[in-house]
Amino acid sequence: MIKENLKKVQQIIKEGIGRRRPSVCQDNVKLIAVTKNHDVEAMREAIDAGAACIGENRIQEAVAKYDCLDRSVEWHLIGHLQTNKVKHAVEIFDLIHSVDSLKLAVELDKAARKIGKVQDVLLQVNLAKEESKSGIYREELPEILLAVAALENLQLCGLMCIAPNYGDSEQARPLFREMYQLFQEVRQMNLQTADIRFLSMGMSHDYKVAVEEGANIVRVGTAIFGQRQY
Ligand SMILES: *Cc1c(COP(=O)(O)O)cnc(C)c1O
Prior knowledge:
Bound molecules: pyridoxal-5'-phosphate
CATH class of the domain at 40-198: Alpha Beta
CATH architecture of the domain at 40-198: Alpha-Beta Barrel
């Protein structure tokens, strides 16, 4: 089932790329298979079926799985990170999508320095200003971007966002379009110490629209693994 679902998602991504307007970059899309609340067996199945990147949202769960997973794969952190857990985060993750404050970035930079790593990160933007979600407001973004880009043990690679959960994914389109515009603006800042190349947006219910609007990373759980049991 996981295998078939994965193929279906990959197909929908491919079709989404084909439907992009000419003004949108024609980048390929990195699919993050979101395995939170699913066991290591499900992770293995997805990886063996071709998933190259997995996404987790909680450090404790990720640490436990990291220690048992006998497969080589890219690890992505997509959930809110507390500053007291940065040590584990830099040990495990290839890309941290959810940097939502300068304070967290500073702590991550320190932890990365201690282990001699340059940690790839994205800044999470709360474009819709939803109080239930973390993320940087648009107005604060330029200042935080510059500060994070200057941290030596972080490599700023782009932006991430979570769209509000509209009933109909078409309703997320204007927000995704605005995010893409913002991503282009950040690219054009030509930050010397950053390498702005990733725009992470789109989940099971709206990744098709996100890809059409220029996402080059999508984070998909339910559409691959089925409903999560909590
Ligand atoms: C859980 C989660 C996802 C995946 O959600 P699905 O609806 O299961 O695809 C994507 N992004 C973040 C930040 C998440 O926490």
